[in-house]
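Provenance

Sequences were taken from public entries as deposited. Structures were produced by running a predictor on each sequence independently, with no templates supplied. The record for Transposase from Nitrosomonas oligotropha is shown for reference.
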Amino acid sequence: MITRKQYAKEFKLDAISLVLEQGHTASEVSRSLEINANMLRS
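Predicted structure for Transposase:
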């Protein structure tokens, strides 16, 4: 069974901030944080 990776709320907010407030693309942020870009979009 595969377990889902859990992220802290602060990590999620920081990642979203990079996209919405600092103008980076979801693809750039997902690559730098090594997470799936769909996670940022949803």
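The chain has one domain: 9-41.
The CA atoms of residues 25 and 32 lie 11 Å apart.
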